[in-house]
Amino acid sequence: MYDVIIIGGGPAGLTAAIYCARAKLKTLVLDKDESALKRAHRIENYFGIESISGEELLEIGKTQALQFGAEIRQEEVLSIIPSEEGYVVETANNKYEAKAVILAVGAKRSKPEIKNIEKFEGKGISYCAVCDAFFFKNKTVAVLGNSDYAIKEAMELKEHAKKVYILTNGKELNLSPGFQEKAVKFEVITEKVIEVFGKESLEGIRFESGKELRIEGLFIAIDPSSPLTLARKLGLRLENGIIVTDKEQSTGIPGIFACGDCASKEKQLSIAVGEGAKAGLSAIKYVRGIK
């Protein structure tokens, strides 16, 4: 049981980890190693630093967090589920429990380039099987994705839907051994999807070859750690793809905090670090208050 699990290992997440670990909270960082800072060739507008690469700065932050006792693991988060003592954070191979969770997942919002996809959001297109599977009872649906997360969503839907397809959208399946075994239960279509269509609600999809597949639901399962996906599953409020927080980085749900690019319009290193510090301090107060 961790005190705090931080999802994301960029400047906001690592700063939060430094504060939490230094306060003697048992702290875990789950990181996909995809921070935008890593791609910054030179940083010259950060206080006290004349010039440094983003990758170098990230490594310094990781070293600091580890020195204070934080754990850092490269695992992709598939879901966050409330539990009696806090939250269960599930990855492809593990489940971790914590009293509090800090989201520092960056600004990436994975939405495939498929014609009309926005038109049918909420009208057959969903980003959360746990949230919406019930509404597709005895219907034909499909999951768009090629990773463990897509199979996990399909398994959730299988309990309700009449038929569940896996659409890899032109990619090969990229699954861990455990999910390879589960994938054989589903019909997999590898053709690229170019369009979704319907009248009042989703009625089908069209492939690059011109073929059509009649479905009543399409579940987007590309990036489980995107702000959109996590916010929907936790019931958080979003505005323009950004998680809404108060001045203490609280999302309004007890024990869930957000910081950095996923919770800020200003995509700046200094702001991400500042919000990470605030989220860390808020998590410390929260955890100490429930102990």
Brief characterization of the structure:
With about 290 residues, the chain is an alpha/beta fold. The chain has 2 domains: about 170 residues, FAD/NAD(P)-binding domain, CATH 3.50.50; about 100 residues, FAD/NAD(P)-binding domain (3-Layer(bba) Sandwich).
Report on the structure:
With 291 residues, this protein is an alpha/beta fold. The chain folds into two domains: 2-109 and 225-290, FAD/NAD(P)-binding domain (3-Layer(bba) Sandwich); 125-220, 3-Layer(bba) Sandwich (FAD/NAD(P)-binding domain). It is 27% helix and 25% strand. The chain contains seven helices and 17 strands. Helix 1 packs parallel to helix 2 (54-67). The mean pLDDT is 90.
List keywords for this structure.
alpha/beta, FAD/NAD(P)-binding domain, 2 domains, 17 strands, 291 residues, 7-stranded mixed sheet
Number of strands: 17
Estimate percent helicity: 25-40%
CATH architectural name of the largest domain = 3-Layer(bba) Sandwich
The largest β sheet comes out as: 7 strands, mixed
Distance between the termini: 13 Å
Radius of gyration: 20 Å
What is the CATH fold-level name of the largest domain? FAD/NAD(P)-binding domain
CATH superfamily of the largest domain: FAD/NAD(P)-binding domain
Strand fraction: 25-35%
Number of domains: 2
Oligomer: single chain
SSE series: EHEHEEEEEHEHEHEEEEEHEEEH
Catalogue the unreliable spans: none
